[in-house]
Amino acid sequence: MGRRLGFTAVGATLALTLAACGGEGAGGSGGAGSGDSDDLTIGVSMPTQTSERWIADGENVQEQLEAEGYEVDLQYANDDIPTQSQQIDQMITEGADILIIAAIDGTALAGQLENAAANDIPVISYDRLIRDSENVDFYVTFDNFEVGVAQGTALLRGLGLQNEDGSPGTATGPFNIELFAGSLDDNNAFFFFNGAMSVLQPLIDNGTLVVKSGQTDIEQAAILRWQQETAQRRMEDLLTSTYNDGSRVDGVLSPYDGLSRGIITALENAGYGPTIDAANPMPIVTGQDAEIASVKLIQDGVQSSTIFKDTRLLAEQAVIAASAFAEGDEPEANDTETYDNGVKVVPSYLLPVVTVFADDIQAELIDTGYWTAEEVEAGQAD
Ligand code: GAL
User: Fold this and answer.
1) Residue 59, Cβ density class (10 Å: 0-12 exposed, 13-18 middle, ≥19 buried)
2) Ligand 1 centre from 246 Cα, in Å?
């Protein structure tokens, strides 16, 4: 981190920024129009370092911004809402010209954004939509409803109900499944769940899929802060409450690889597996983010699939948006309808997503340089 420009010293940045802005307010896209990236500082606020995807996001955004000549103030908030609020306040005080924020709790930053707006600082919502604020200027993300559709579809494929080309598979069911969702303070969780249910609900309605616990509401399925341990505990509870009669769970909708690993641990402890092909097969478990530990599990036939979202491309879009603001322009959106944050529809740039089964690891993750073959083999990043 901080590779290209060795200094992130706050005082120096502040002095530069104030000089650039002629002392009018603390920074401000007012600088807009100058287009001189060397004088601009971009505050990048990321939720946590416990998930490798956010580490990669932070590094990618930082590297790409620095390559364009911007100063970068990158902060991680340990999944703690007051920490994130305080870090953003500090970025504003220290003269950030543009903010890129991946929120922990998308509803908790309205105050910070008001402060940013008062200082003419454009705000780019990164991956997760910041809600209940008119001061979100742009949103860069993946097509989150499509992520959910892809997860629901991957569950059907894993169960043999559907073929890769969308035609009906050889399996007929009925299959017992359980549903997991993300953190309810993350707007994405609803898009993922709704997208998945758009695929699964018709098969639940016709009896092909049975949610044996009866827990089909997102509130019942949700895992606060996307915590792996919480997911493990909920899966353990489901196994005890619902599957202690000799019945088995055949599939689990999981919206994120970290949750998938917790779910798989609970299933392993209950005697499932070790793989999808075992005598007492591991249920079909979906995922998201192509985290390296999960890619290894997919390669080994333990986890069935994940959804790959290339964070390098997301970082690139964030940088393109930031550069547009720096030049006094509006970034180009490819969606101006979907992301209503409760106050306004935020112009968005949505990226496509890729489903990854074991057979896709080489082409999608290794050939594209996202992970090396060695990293996949080891199950950890270099
Ligand atoms: C979501 C994000 C997912 C996953 C999850 C847990 O907001 O879109 O890709 O990373 O958070 O971190």
Assistant:
1) middle
2) 34
Ligand 1 atom, smallest distance to 128 CA: 7
The angle, 0 to 180 degrees and rounded to 10, between the axes of the packed helices 187-205 and 144-159 is: 40
**Site residues for ligand 1, CB cut-off 6 Å:** 51, 53, 127-128, 182, 186, 188, 226, 256, 288-289, 309
- Model confidence over 141-162: pLDDT tens digits? 999 999 999 999 999 999 999 9
CATH number at residue 55: 3.40.50.2300
Judge if 103 and 224 occupy the same domain. Answer: no
Are residues 193 and 323 located together in one domain of the fold? no
Ligand 1, atom 6, residue with closest C-alpha: 226
Burial of 282 (0-12, 13-18, 19+ CB in 10 A): buried
pLDDT tens profile 195-216: 999 999 999 999 999 999 999 9
> Of 50, 53, 76, 180, which is best to mutate to test ligand 1, by the most ligand atoms within 8 angstroms of its C-beta?
53
Q: Number of H helices and number of E strands within the chain?
A: 12, 12
Task: Examine the domain organization and report whether 72 and 190 are in the same domain.
Answer: no
Look up the domain containing 297 and give its range: 144-308+358-366+371-378
- Same domain assignment for residues 256 and 341: no
Cα–chain center distance at 90? 25
